[in-house]
Structure formats: structure tokens, C-alpha cells
Design brief:
With 211 residues, the protein is mostly helical. The protein is built from ten helices and five strands. Strands 3-4-5 form a three-stranded mixed beta sheet. Strands 1-2 form a two-stranded antiparallel sheet.
């Protein structure tokens, strides 16, 4: 997934010559709390947040050029960068949003923190059995029943609770990816469990072939 797939294309942009009071009204009407400042060619020359606007109004500053953050201080991404880069930069710098540029430096979008949350929430709603079906396709020659048997064994080893393959199958049919992550104690543990299941399936097939 690339940045351009999660960015907000309905962003507002302002000019350095715009009045601060006009920008405050524009941000309020559109409910956008950050905005890129662009030149006549649409290239990024500054960045304004609602805090900058509040400061400008309080201090009696009239123009956007008086309150905007300079380009060298602006964290940004390219539209063709991996989406995860936008997520990492937003989290690392604790930002509400960051501008997205094309190869010519023009602003083509804005990635907002709630866009990231919305995208992640969609991933969390993926059914777990879809992930197991993908494993089934990748582990050539492995049946669905073998996969469920291995999953039940790994679950028993980790939790101490006995569970039959059919019970495990019913459980994942009703579980989402997000629920599974919470239940297993985090993303890393969830995928470690999947790897363990795959390894067990292969080990059992090799053992059977040797008999």
C-alpha cells in the first residue's frame, strides 16, 4: 500500500499572502486543523496548524507568512512512499497530519492521523480464517484439516487448554484479526503463533513421510 492510497485528497491549501483571519474561518468551515501553504505552482512553502492560527490571532499577526512553519521544519512524505512510512513518521514526530508531495514538490494530499486509524481499523476487521486460508495456499500440499489440527495443538501448548480442531475452526470463523491480536497479547505474538503452526504442519508431514 502506498501513501497516495490513504491520503486525504480533499485538503485545503492556503497562500503566504492570505489573511490569518480568513484562514481561521476556512479551517473552521472545513474542519481541517492543519493546512499546507503553497506557492502559485502548488509547491510546499510552509505549514499552518490551528495552534499557529490561534497564536497569530492573539498576537495580531495578519498574514499566513507571519505564522507559518518554514519548509525545512516540515515532515512530509512522497505520494509513492510506502504507507507505513507515513504511519511511522506521524507516530515518531507525534503529528496530527503531514503533507504529501509529488516528485516535483507539489502538494497532492495530506495524511491525517484519523485516516491512518481508519485504515488500521479496516485491517483489524479482516477475518482470521482469511489469514489461515492464505497460509493454506502457501503451504503447498497441506490440507485445511492439517492446518486446523496444528493450530489446535499450538493453542493447547500455549494456553494449556484442550481444544479440538473443529472447535478451533469455529473460533476463527467468528474472530477478526483485531480480536485475535488482543487475545494473543499483541501483533508479534500472533504472528509468532502463525509461524509455529506452519512449522508444526511441515514437521508432522515430514514425520509421516518417513514412516
Amino acid at each position: 500500500m502506498k501513501v497516495k492510497e490513504i491520503m486525504d485528497k480533499e485538503f485545503i491549501a492556503v497562500s503566504p499572502e492570505d489573511r490569518v483571519v480568513d484562514v481561521s474561518l476556512k479551517m473552521e468551515e472545513t474542519r481541517k486543523f492543519t493546512t499546507p501553504v503553497v506557492d502559485g505552482d502548488g509547491k510546499l512553502v510552509g505549514w499552518v496548524t490551528s495552534f499557529d492560527v490561534m497564536r497569530g490571532l492573539r498576537d495580531g499577526l495578519e498574514l499566513v507568512s507571519d505564522i507559518m512553519q518554514p519548509p525545512e521544519r516540515i515532515v512530509h512524505v512522497n505520494e509513492n512512499d510506502p504507507a507505513r512510512l507515513a504511519v511511522l513518521k506521524t507516530a515518531h514526530h507525534k503529528l496530527v497530519s503531514i503533507p504529501v508531495l509529488d516528485d516535483d514538490g507539489r502538494v497532492v494530499g495530506v495524511v491525517r492521523s484519523f485516516d491512518i486509524v481508519e485504515t488500521l481499523s479496516q485491517l483489524y476487521e479482516i477475518k482470521v480464517y482469511k489469514i489461515f486460508e492464505a497460509m493454506n495456499e502457501e503451504l503447498k500440499g497441506v490440507s485445511w484439516d492439517e492446518l486446523m489440527e496444528a493450530a489446535a495443538i499450538i493453542t493447547r501448548r500455549r494456553t494449556g487448554k484442550r481444544i479440538k480442531p473443529k472447535e478451533y475452526e469455529e473460533r476463527i470463523r467468528n474472530s477478526t484479526f483485531g480480536e485475535a491480536i488482543w487475545a494473543t497479547g499483541g501483533l508479534e505474538k500472533f504472528f509468532v503463533g502463525l509461524i509455529a503452526i506452519g512449522e508444526l504442519v511441515i514437521a508432522r508431514k515430514i514425520a509421516r513421510a518417513r514412516k
